[in-house]
């Protein structure tokens, strides 16, 4: 049995987020094909994730097992103990929502999710895999604006830092482009999500 951590980062209410329409369908299909797996949904806005406090920063080099129930460090242990990760967030101003960056700061904890060695940092979340589901207003998957996309790139990089190198992206692009068939784009992304959920 695997544990899947479903990390949601969008302030929009249920039913209005195009990102969540795709991601929720991924989770629904995943459950159908992996009925014995545990799904933990972590809605960052409902969790009230905030920026790191002085206390939180001071706790970021704990001794093994220390702070497992700490209101901030508990997220790093939860992340470490999961087997698979599903991220769902829109592209905001070419990057990820600030609340998701705050969450990343929570889970990047020395001795928990990574460590420093004589050869440099080593991720402690190896052997796990992630999928990132994102909705974007323009075309950022290819072409001249692809270099501007720093949301999915950041998540791929930081998860690689933590040892998660099996990383897949599902993106719905051009959703704010005039004349675009938004429902068709979202529908195609949902279809891809359902296909990938079967073997994730």
Automatic annotation (TrEMBL):
GO MF, one example: electron transfer activity
Name it. Answer: FMN dependent NADH:quinone oxidoreductase
* Encoding gene, per UniProt annotation: azoR
* Known partners and oligomeric status: Homodimer.
Cite the EC number. Answer: 1.6.5.-, 1.7.1.17
Cofactors that this protein relies on: FMN
**Entry cofactor note text?**
Binds 1 FMN per subunit.
User: InterPro entries this protein is in?
Assistant: Flavodoxin_fold (IPR003680), Flavoprotein-like_sf (IPR029039), FMN-dep_NADH:Q_OxRdtase_AzoR1 (IPR050104), NADH:quinone_OxRdtase_FMN_depd (IPR023048)
Instruction: Give the protein's function.
Output: Also exhibits azoreductase activity. Catalyzes the reductive cleavage of the azo bond in aromatic azo compounds to the corresponding amines. Quinone reductase that provides resistance to thiol-specific stress caused by electrophilic quinones.
Which reaction(s) does the protein catalyse, per the Swiss-Prot or TrEMBL entry?
N,N-dimethyl-1,4-phenylenediamine + anthranilate + 2 NAD(+) = 2-(4-dimethylaminophenyl)diazenylbenzoate + 2 NADH + 2 H(+); 2 a quinone + NADH + H(+) = 2 a 1,4-benzosemiquinone + NAD(+)
Q: What class of enzyme is it?
A: oxidoreductase
Domain (Flavodoxin-like fold): residue spans on this chain: 3-195
Q: Which UniProt keywords apply?
A: Flavoprotein, FMN, NAD, Oxidoreductase
The UniProt entry, under HAMAP family, shows: Azoreductase_type1 (MF_01216)
Say yes or no: keyword Flavoprotein present: yes
Where would you find the membrane-spanning parts of this chain? none
UniProt keyword Oxidoreductase, yes or no: yes
List the Pfam families hit by this protein, alphabetically.
Answer: Flavodoxin_2 (PF02525)
């Amino acid at each position: 049995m695997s544990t899947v951590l479903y990390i949601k980062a969008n302030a929009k209410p249920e039913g209005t987020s195009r990102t969540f329409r795709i991601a929720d369908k991924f989770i629904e299909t995943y459950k159908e094909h992996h009925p014995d797996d545990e799904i933990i949904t972590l809605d960052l806005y409902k969790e009230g994730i905030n920026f790191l406090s002085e206390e939180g920063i001071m706790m970021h080099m704990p001794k093994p097992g220390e702070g497992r129930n700490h209101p901030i460090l508990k997220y790093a242990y939860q992340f470490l103990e999961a087997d698979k990760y599903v991220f769902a967030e829109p592209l905001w101003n070419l990057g990820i929502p600030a609340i998701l960056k705050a969450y990343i700061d929570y889970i990047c904890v020395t001795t928990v999710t990574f460590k420093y060695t004589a050869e440099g940092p080593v991720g402690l979340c190896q052997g796990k895999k992630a999928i990132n589901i994102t909705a974007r207003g323009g075309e950022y998957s290819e072409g001249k604006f692809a270099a501007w996309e720093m949301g999915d790139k950041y998540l791929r990089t930081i998860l690689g830092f933590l040892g998660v190198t099996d990383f897949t992206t599902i993106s719905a692009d051009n959703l704010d482009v005039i004349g675009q068939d938004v429902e068709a784009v979202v529908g195609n992304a949902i279809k891809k999500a359902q296909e990938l959920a079967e073997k994730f």
